[in-house]
Design goal:
Elements: H1 3-23, H2 36-47, H3 57-60, H4 63-78, H5 80-90, H6 97-106, H7 115-162, H8 181-196, H9 198-212, H10 223-247, H11 259-272, H12 288-300, H13 313-327, E1 334-335, E2 338-339, H14 342-369, H15 375-386, H16 401-416, H17 418-426
Antiparallel strand pairs: 1-2
């Protein structure tokens, strides 16, 4: 059992346990045994914080079933190693070298030190933002459903938003709150914070702490922080403007709304495309151009060390910097006056190639199994599953059993990561001290 196999098997265990629990009669609203495919698909989507569903979560599952889904979302958002490590710390067990290596690999850390404090800070950060989201959403839900039902609605949607899951207890997701500035602001804030990564959150926390304590020392933000924040802002801005332009005159989405509401709805969908699965407009009524734009945003996804999926913002930024370096005739990959290590560049290339091959393969297979579906909707569904987003044009429940199983595999691989999955299958790489002579070749 290598570290990568431990992580992958941990997610499989959570999915298996969740499937069994969701199959039991007390989990369904009707009180009958659940369909195994429905239970497996829902458990996988929840553990992988995706949000794709084949049944309506709010009406199909009982309160117990909804609670199980929410627990799976929370565990999946934290990650298997973070959840188990926190449990070990509560039991008073000290972390060994193997545990630290697993945390390092699951969180994409570059060093082994500080594993205990990292896990504690992740748990504390998660609880703070989720509880804050509950209190902010409560008055909005209470105006429509009363405080009794609103408490559960606020808890469910706050946890789902921060973990970038996208599960909703409403059949139309959040379309009824499309014109609510408060709900739009709360949901998008939770999604952005949850998808920006814990390292960035902690750097902001330390910066605010020093400012409030009056310390005059200048804090130097890490290269990771600068790349993640700048890339996130650029993608959010470009995505909002692109969706506003393409859907502006679409009578089924934005055309009938005022300009302010149009901007708000375009902003919301641009943020959500970063791997949460909510929607305030009908995704199935969007133009093909808009669907392709959203698919591109979903494929990029969130940032490393976050609850989101995709190939990550740092990966895209590294490849863009590499392209700029080639055009400028430079042999070094530089960003913010720092040189990016070669191994990180190679990893970024491997992530994009592996992810692209996965999406192409799944799209091809589903197009063969369900040939009656439009290609753009199949591509959109495949990217959404791989990037653990959860947005859909409405075809998920209509897919064949084989196509649903393919999406289950896609969500799982997207959550654990392509490289980690390959490492679990092939085993840890064996480093060689042999160096071969260099020879040039034509490229491009």
């Amino acid at each position: 059992m290598t570290v990568s196999r431990t992580i992958c098997s941990g997610f499989l265990i959570m999915i298996t346990v969740g499937t069994v629990l969701l199959m039991l009669p007390f989990s369904t609203h009707s009180g009958d045994w659940n369909n195994p495919i429905v239970a497996l698909f829902t458990a996988t989507s929840a553990v992988c914080v995706t949000g794709l569903v084949v049944v309506d979560t709010g009406s199909y599952f009982s309160p117990w079933g909804q609670g199980i889904v929410l627990l799976l979302i929370q565990l999946g958002g934290l990650g298997y190693m973070t959840a188990t490590t926190f449990l070990l710390l509560l039991l008073g067990r000290r972390l060994g070298l193997r545990d630290r290596l697993a945390i390092q690999q699951s969180m994409d850390k570059t060093e082994l030190s500080g594993a205990n404090s990292l896990v504690r800070s992740i748990i504390a950060t998660t609880m703070i933002f989720e509880i804050t989201g509950v209190f902010l959403m409560l008055p909005i839900f209470a105006s429509d459903y009363g405080y009794g039902q609103s408490v559960w609605l606020a808890i469910f949607h706050s946890i789902s938003a921060f973990n970038n899951a996208g599960f909703s207890l409403f059949s139309d997701s959040l379309m009824q709150y499309a014109r609510s500035p408060g709900m739009n602001l709360i949901i998008t804030s939770l999604v952005i914070i949850g998808g920006i990564g814990y390292q960035v959150i902690m750097e902001v926390f330390f910066w605010l702490r020093d400012r409030l304590q009056g310390r005059q020392e200048r804090i130097i933000f890490s290269l990771h922080f600068k790349i993640v924040t700048s890339t996130t802002l650029i993608l959010l801005g470009i995505g909002s403007l692109a969706l506003l332009a393409t859907e502006f005159s679409n009578p089924f989405t934005l055309a009938t709304e005022g300009f302010g509401v149009k901007v708000m709805m375009a902003w919301f969908q641009s943020v959500i495309a970063r791997t949460a699965g909510f929607n305030t407009i009908d995704i199935g009524s969007m133009k093909n151009t808009s669907l392709f734009i959203v698919a591109a945003l979903m494929f990029i996804g969130a940032s490393p060390g976050s609850t989101g999926g995709g190939i990550k913002t740092t990966t895209v930024r590294i490849l863009m910097i590499c392209t700029r370096a080639v055009l400028q005739g430079k042999a070094e990959v530089l960003c913010y006056q720092r040189q990016i290590p070669v191994d990180r560049v190679l990893k970024a290339i491997a992530v994009v190639v592996g992810s692209g091959m996965m999406v192409i393969g799944i799209t091809t297979l589903i197009s063969l199994t369900d040939s009656n579906l439009n290609f753009i909707t199949v591509l959109f569904e495949s990217v959404s599953a791989f990037a653990t987003v959860g947005l859909s044009t409405g075809i998920t429940a209509k897919l064949s059993t084989l196509a649903k199983l393919l999406l289950i595999i896609t969500m799982y691989v997207g959550r654990v990561g392509v490289l980690l999955m390959m490492s679990a299958i092939l085993g840890d790489p064996r480093f060689s001290t042999i160096h071969y002579p260099e020879e040039d070749l034509l490229v491009g």
